[in-house]
Amino acid sequence: MQLIPTLTADQMARLSSFAREFSPSQWVWISGYFAGLAQAGGAGLAPAQTQVVASSSAPEQALVLYGTETGNAKGLAKKVVEQFASRGFEARAVDMEAYKTRELKTEKHIIVITATHGEGDPPDPARPFFEFLSSKKAPKLNQAHFAVLGLGDTSYEFFCKAAHDMDAQLETLGAVRLLDRVDCDVDYEETAHAWIEQVVEAFSTRMEPASSPSLHVESPHAVVGELAHGSEDQPLHATLGERVLLNGRGSDKATYHIEVMLENDDPIHHPGDALGVVVENDVALVEEIVHALGFNSNGAAEKLRRECELTILTPKFIKAYGEAADAAELKALSAEGNRDALNAYINNRQIVDVVREYPVQGMAPDLFTGMLRPLKPRLYSIASSAEACPGEIHLTVAEVVYESPLAKRYGVASAYLNHRLEESAALRVYVEPNTRFRLPDDPQTPVIMIGAGTGVAPYRAFIQEREVRGQEGRSWLFFGDRRFRTDFLYQAEWQQYIKDGYLTRMDVAFSRDQERKMYVQHRLLEHGKEIFAWLEEGAILYVCGDAKHMAPDVHNALIRIVAEQGGHDEEAAREYVNALTADKRYKRDVY
Prior knowledge:
alpha/beta; Rossmann fold; Elongation Factor Tu (Ef-tu), domain 3; CATH 1.20.990.10; 4 domains; 7-stranded parallel β-sheet; 6-stranded antiparallel β-sheet; 20 strands
């Protein structure tokens, strides 16, 4: 029988005191470190800066590749690495943007976690990796096993398509699928954590343990310093400040400038970051649903107001509610092959409209709320510089309207900020860092900024920052909206920035001011020769706004400009644009 050594009371006291100095992730490393010392015969602690190596060969690693826009995939990748380390195995998490593709042919254990963005696209930073994997340059992966986790949103037609594409392409290259792909909706946590347990278990059986497993999470965008910017789980307390309608009389849009007042003046954000706003549903909307379903519980109404998504209608809800209501029309919409009809039904309706069209008196509240997605905070690009506006965060919020057959409906967050909250009302907010959408470190680097509607918000923060720092590097803004007279957001400010030299040039496109609609991509093509010259001189190009139409149209215009002005064929022009992305000179924040 093997005897288990025990500690003296003094040793236990010293160990307990020692333990309080370290985080859980550090303890994972420490446990492996001491295990390695035990295997080496307890030769004593290595010097502080010395890495402990159990053998002359590097430990076999699992590669956890992640593609992310918001950071969710990165967080899950880190958990996978931590799970491997806790079991004594080596793994590293690498952003697809930073991964050296020449190493792919040597990988044996490939785990992929990727979001899907826009209309079935990979996250922007991961796009070059996806394109590499589908190119002739991609290596055969006959020696590798793989598993894929997708993060997406079932309200989009091409749910988790990037993960589907990745899963299929790895198999095409010869890798063996170790686990079936799993796709997660916006409430991904429970599904993703179960998948992590399964994937670590499955891969561990094919790997050799490491003597001292360590944590590796590689990202091209390390955050320097920790800002007290709050989080979704622990938001900051703020109040609603000034609220100004930016559109002129006669506009068919309503866009508001919103000022959020923080509790102190400490800077908690950088230009390019977003503000998460914790929202609540409209009480009147909740009452409509409660009345239609005959709920008599105050607890159900409170849960609907604070915890449940009521404005975004999803195919998942249509299917579940159609079954519960035994509604033939809803069941037909959910049938395979009826996606166009389903989309048409969903586009201008909310949860309340379905409930009113197909009321079910006496439905159990828990059954109904179980069909709904959790109410998530809404993210808005920050439209101000912390240095220029200490203690404040400015937002540019467009009113979201649904023309339902039953009544005009509004987006939960835009109505909350633009109308329902009184001035000085309390808000819960947090900063979502966006390290991929920042000004260049060198203020002399030229910047080209492209945005339509509220997509202009981060550029206001950019120019404010440059003004307060006295930086006058070349900058060129392309802005688009509907009408010059009523929809030129922040017009007076842009004109003053041009006059003062902080904005070098501005070109605008107002789509409804002439018979032929004019958009920002048309202005880009008009000035293609100069844009290409700026790019050749090292300019960074930014795109912010609509992911469905504007961003793809701008992308295609950019490829055309490079082809025409650079004398390239289409394939070479695409490679040029991909190189801009890889060099972090083509940055997109689209939604």
